[in-house]
Amino acid sequence: MLAKRNDAHFVPTLFNDLFRDWSTTNFSETNTTLPALNIKETLDEFIVDVAVPGMDKKDFKIDLDNDVLTISSEKTVNNEETKENYTRKEYSYRSFKRSFTLPQGIVNRDKIEAVYKNGELKITIPKLEEAKPKPIKLIEVK
């Protein structure tokens, strides 16, 4: 018995993916507002970079509860324009929340810093001195 294959639905999906209006997807294919995020580890610290253009530093809430670092943001914009025969009201609402469990006994909780500049939120999480790798120590033979 032959099975008939119907690829007619493939073409619209391809066009939807290629020509999607990225401004309306809010950073994610799942229509959620999770921004792009990178985590980098150096010898001295962890660096979390979050791409969040169009926000202000007052829009962010960053807290550390035990070993869970939570980054959240909420922004509401209301615009109203009234002219001769019409009134136009537009509003938008964006929010996200991301949580990460920090490694125990490695990070210096008291020195975590966050800076928002040019659409990027950068969180620096320093390591404790005891957790940093130690350089090779040469022992002199006597």
What does this structure look like?
The chain is mainly beta and 142 residues long. It has one helix at residues 10-18, and strands at residues 37-41, 45-51, 60-65, 68-82, 87-101, 113-117, 120-126. The strands form two sheets. A four-stranded antiparallel beta sheet has the order 1-2-7-6, with no helix packed on it. The longest helix is centred in the first third of the chain and has 9 residues, at 10-18. It is elongated and about 95 Å long.
Summarize it.
By secondary structure, the protein is mainly beta. It has one helix spanning 10-18, and strands at 37-41, 45-51, 60-65, 68-82, 87-101, 113-117, 120-126. It has 1 helix and 7 strands, in the order αβββββββ.
Q: Tags for this entry?
A:
6% helix; 1 helix; disordered N terminus; 142 residues
* Strand line-up across the major sheet: 1-2-7-6
The helix/strand class is: mainly beta
The end-to-end distance, rounded to whole angstroms, is 86 Å
The helicity comes to under 10%
Give a topology summary.
Layout: H1 10-18, E1 37-41, E2 45-51, E3 60-65, E4 68-82, E5 87-101, E6 113-117, E7 120-126
Antiparallel strand pairs: 1-2, 2-7, 3-4, 4-5, 6-7
